Every structure is written in structure tokens, then in C-alpha cells.
């Protein structure tokens, strides 16, 4: 049944009349508007602008792909524990993991030279030297100075060179020549606890190796489940230049050299 407008008005009036005298409809509580959100705005540093530009360039220009593997760090950790004191006494610097990985990368670059190259227009530049870029985190951002001729340095030489460029980076004393000419980059997110990542190529290089945290994990070994200190490795590469077979072979060569460092002495 539809009420006419007149009947509806009468019904409302009757309801008001029936209400207790002096009653007032409750007033809804006042709701204060939320306070404005706080934020600050700062100018990007020149370094941060450069980093941003290079990363975007790498993403846009390279056909980037990442392949993964894992490595048992037992052999390297045993060597460090056995010879650390003698190494420090003789060389004045600690034996770290980076020297092992640098040697393993140089070994793999020699075995898979296609990774030690870059694209320049419609040409391929093949490097016949081994200048390795090392990612260093500073308060102002990530920088990637170069350690020269890593194939000619022994373990102590690599450790000293890495220490020197890292100190210069943190002191803000790196110059343009310190960044030029790298063939390949190593970055170690493991020092911050990273388990796995997909590092971005340091253009115009064709590949970058990402190291990660070492964690004890169960693995199957000779039919038994054992606990080993394991690290995930990530190799990002430019698929325009490096084929999947080359990338996987390269990463396996690094893995083999770390799991059996004798290979570095015998070049096998």
C-alpha cells in the first residue's frame, strides 16, 4: 500500500507527538579529522641520481636474466680456519671469502670467455684482461670500484686491493678512474643477511655474480642427509650476448672452484 504525501506527513507528526515531552534526538559525536601525515622531502644526491640512472639504463637496454645455483662452503671455511692466523701474520690482512670468489670468477671467465665481453653497438668487445668490479656499500649509496688484473694477484693481493678500494669508497675518495674498465662485477648481499636476490648488471658489463648469506642446511650427500654451510649464488647476465648454456656453465665453474679450491691451483 502506497501512502500519499499527506498521509506520510501525518504519520511523522503523530510519531513526534507520541514522543516523551522534552525528549531531544541524540546528537552524533563529533569526529575530528585525522592529523595530516608527516613526511619530508630532500634532494637526491648526485651519487644517488647516477646510481638510479645506471640501474634504469641496465634494465632498459639489456635482456637481463638470472640463473641460480648453491655452493657448499665447507672447504673454503675449513681452509680459512686452518690458515687464517698464518695468513694474517705473513700478509697483515685477513683471509676473507671475497678472494676465493674473485679467483673462482677469474677461473670461470677464462673457461667461458663469452661472459668476459660486452656489446658496443653492433660489435662485441672481448676482454683479454680481468678487472673485477666490487660492490661496496657506503653511507651515501652503493659504489662499484674496480680491482685491476685479478688474474695476476695472489690471495693476499686481492684481499689488500679490496680493502683499499673499500676504504677509499667509505672515505669518499674514489675518483672516476676507480670505476672505469671493469669486466665483471661481484656483489655480496650476504653481509647484510640476504638469502637470495637477482642483482642488476653493472652496464656495459654482461654479467654480475651475487653472493648471499651462508646458512647451515640439510643436503643429500652420498645417500645421507648431512648439514652443510650453504650459500645461494645468483648470476644475472645479458641474454643478448650470453647464452643460457654459457651462463650455467660459468656458474657451475664458480661452484666447483669454491667447493674444491684445489681446482684453482691446477686450473681445472
Structure description:
The protein is α+β, with helices and mostly antiparallel strands. The protein has one domain: 2-Layer Sandwich (Chloramphenicol Acetyltransferase), CATH 3.30.559. It contains seven helices and eleven strands. Strands 1, 4, 7, 8, 9, 10 and 11 form a seven-stranded mixed sheet that branches. A two-stranded antiparallel ribbon has the order 2-3. Helix 4 crosses helix 5 and helix 4 crosses helix 6. The radius of gyration is 31 Å and the shape is elongated. The model has no long low-confidence stretch (mean pLDDT 91).
State the distance separating the first and last CA atoms.
96 Å
CATH homologous superfamily classification = Chloramphenicol acetyltransferase-like domain
Mean pLDDT metric: 91
Number of domains: 1
Would you give the CATH topology? Chloramphenicol Acetyltransferase
Which series of helices and strands comes N to C?
Answer: HHEHHEEEEEEHEEEEHH
CATH class: Alpha Beta
List segments where confidence is low: pLDDT < 50 over at least 5 consecutive residues.
Answer: none
What class, by secondary structure content? Answer: alpha+beta
Overall 3D form: elongated
Amino acid at each position: 500500500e502506497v501512502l500519499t504525501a499527506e498521509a506520510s506527513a501525518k504519520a511523522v507528526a503523530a510519531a513526534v507527538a507520541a514522543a516523551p515531552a522534552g525528549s531531544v534526538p541524540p546528537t552524533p559525536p563529533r569526529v575530528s579529522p585525522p592529523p595530516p601525515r608527516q613526511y619530508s622531502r630532500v634532494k637526491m644526491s648526485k651519487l644517488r641520481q647516477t646510481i638510479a640512472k645506471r640501474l634504469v639504463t641496465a634494465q632498459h637496454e639489456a635482456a637481463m636474466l638470472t640463473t641460480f645455483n648453491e655452493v657448499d662452503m665447507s672447504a673454503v671455511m675449513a681452509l680459512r680456519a686452518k690458515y687464517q692466523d698464518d695468513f694474517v701474520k705473513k700478509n697483515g690482512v685477513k683471509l676473507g671469502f671475497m678472494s676465493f670468489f674473485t679467483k673462482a670468477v677469474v677461473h670461470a671467465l677464462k673457461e667461458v670467455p663469452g661472459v668476459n665481453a660486452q656489446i658496443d653497438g653492433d660489435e662485441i668487445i672481448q676482454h683479454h684482461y680481468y678487472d673485477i668490479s666490487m660492490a661496496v656499500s657506503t653511507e651515501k649509496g652503493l659504489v662499484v670500484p674496480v680491482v685491476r688484473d685479478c688474474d695476476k694477484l695472489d690471495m693476499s693481493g686481492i684481499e689488500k686491493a679490496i680493502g683499499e678500494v673499500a676504504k677509499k669508497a667509505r672515505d669518499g675518495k674514489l675518483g672516476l678512474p676507480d670505476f672505469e674498465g671493469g669486466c665483471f662485477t661481484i656483489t655480496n648481499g650476504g653481509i647484510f643477511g640476504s638469502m637470495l636476490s637477482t642483482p642488476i648488471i653493472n652496464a656495459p658489463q654482461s654479467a654480475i655474480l651475487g653472493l648471499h648469506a651462508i646458512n647451515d642446511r640439510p643436503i643429500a650427500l652420498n645417500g645421507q642427509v648431512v648439514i652443510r654451510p650453504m650459500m645461494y649464488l645468483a648470476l644475472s647476465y645479458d641474454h643478448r650476448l650470453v647464452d643460457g648454456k654459457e651462463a650455467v656453465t660459468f656458474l657451475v665453474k664458480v661452484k666447483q672452484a669454491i667447493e674444491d679450491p684445489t681446482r684453482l691451483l691446477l686450473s681445472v
